[in-house]
């Protein structure tokens, strides 16, 4: 038989690059409508145009995708694998078109058929495969890896139902299922050939032969199939296209024929349902560990599938796994994939025959771990009984890792029992649990926090003893946001203005935004900057008017707090301040009040009672304030339902003031804070997370910092601080709380907020009372500043100009250099 001829792919190797002029694009869009979608253009509906446009853009991405894949394979460069339970992507069409520089030609092409690109883009569902900051960071990092030329693959879960849709009914949050796949997903490619069996349960068989080390063989009692779905991620200017590979669970035997033939039609599908449940829905809790068996199954499922895939690819290009860490960097996005440490050890020792110590060296050199929170309730730990039942061999491995670590700590560092208990992978105190943070830490060569302050606090608190044991391991990597989505695409008005004023260099290097700094003193530029902001505010006001029938004055301060609802993020403090302001406006109508619109948005975890009460309160207060003729246009309060990435893209450019007011020490970094400031909002915030570094970059005149610092919060907590005495001596605060307690905002149920308020009197854990006065004063100085528009706008311009460092390209370059040793310039 003759050798198979080599087949060149289309696209990457075609001599002529595809034409990108409107004529060609228009023709191809109609071709897709006709031959891929089967619709006559005259009968095409809006979704058909979206699909056809997506397919035409996708063809161009595929050309770049093949070229990127070939380049990495041929260069044998080290690859980076980003393992994340969450990717909060949002829409992809605008991002892809922008990064391929096709926005204008595609717009033009669609116009030929009287179709508006903006309208088509709005039809794309948000891929909401994440909860909030952590998932959105993973999405920014995927885009930045492609943009900076890092050969990266993201691994995650293809949830059928992403983050729930939020509606507000009678002021309260209602959760509805999200159905992003309803119209199919033209971005993804199902890879049936890349599927792996994943085991659960069963037992471990130990084989001993004289003179040989023991061998352990795991015999799972249950198996499911992980099937890959790939989405291409295009970098800026299309230079590189990386892959996001999401796993979907399927039954190995889709139908139990014996049961079916016996007439048990439901029973025949039991296996299938059980398997598919693993990837059916995203857990909607961001700062609270879910603690459910299904969650642990999800974590192991995607970790194990990703590792098998990584090893298969490595062995197809290398002789053995000896050099795994030279060719592969795996980043654990929080502890959700931390079981990977035990699983890689299992694969190396049990399957590939490595001795323990060699396997451990390879494992540790391969993994890096990013921590995203210090909140104790968010730190993952699993009951040993559950872990052992589901993953018996991995449990044995964790015991062995633990024994090694404890021996090292005792022998080399002389750790005492208390220190040993702190570093142990097993928590003996709470009914014996596996601590995933400790596992991720010891199994990684680099452990990072996401802002300078957070990293320092990691060393002092959660990982204090592990830091002592491994003093070189913790490092900082301050978060960033992609300037493509969060400036260029969401704020074309500002981008156009900046291009005209300072040239296009900032498009490729965000730090070049600094060239705009001097324009803060240029009154003509300031006017144009203000006009752009005014337009963005008017657009948001229109949306609010459409959706909520609330009319806003676009000349008021747009004061915005959008993020997950959480006690530590202190939306409650913001609402109390709004009530105090409301009371003051009513009491002193003659004063020169600066008009304000307070905008809130965000979802509460369905089981988080206090967070849901805060949403309810915001809506109750909004109803009362907005219908009170006494405050006229001076104060309006809006809660926009269903906060998601697409809504954020409209909100960020429309803000005058960004609320970043977490209790100091608790917000690991924040990324919303960066997006607002980049788009020219001033920040009112505590010295928390990346606010600290934002202060350093924008300068203290251009940001409004108030409140207790992290060490002061810790001190107050040690002193058993409570709010009562502060409330007693602060009339503004007392009157606001009295109004809440007496049912002014909830006449139907005056007791509704009893717990929320009594917590402030008795405990004030989140330092709302402690920080109230400083917050109030900072707000009033902002009121005064807003009346001096040229000064306000010049500060806003300084914010945009000085935020370049917060690009996620900078974050990724730091990870590449300090943790991964991969990417441009990092070849060993
Ligand atoms: C978040 C942090 O709360 C936020 O401060 C940070 O900016 C973001 O991660 C990205 O690093 N954490 C989460 O979203 N979720 C968890 C489980 O920490
Ligand atoms: N959710 C969405 C939809 C976002 O776009 C962002 C960041 O912009 C976040 C959550 C995280 O917000 P924060 O950093 O304020 O917690």
UniProtKB/TrEMBL annotation:
It holds the Pfam family Phosphorylase. Residues 1-22 are annotated as: Disordered. It catalyses: [(1->4)-alpha-D-glucosyl](n) + phosphate = [(1->4)-alpha-D-glucosyl](n-1) + alpha-D-glucose 1-phosphate. The keyword Cytoplasm does not apply. Its cofactor is pyridoxal 5'-phosphate. Keywords: Carbohydrate metabolism, Glycosyltransferase, Pyridoxal phosphate, Transferase. InterPro entries: Glycg_phsphrylas, Glyco_trans_35, Pyridoxal_P_attach_site. Its EC number is 2.4.1.1. Phosphorylase is an important allosteric enzyme in carbohydrate metabolism. Enzymes from different sources differ in their regulatory mechanisms and in their natural substrates. However, all known phosphorylases share catalytic and structural properties. PANTHER family: GLYCOGEN PHOSPHORYLASE (PTHR11468), GLYCOGEN PHOSPHORYLASE, LIVER FORM (PTHR11468:SF3). Belongs to the glycogen phosphorylase family. NCBIfam families: P_ylase (TIGR02093). This is Alpha-1,4 glucan phosphorylase. It comes from Jiella mangrovi.
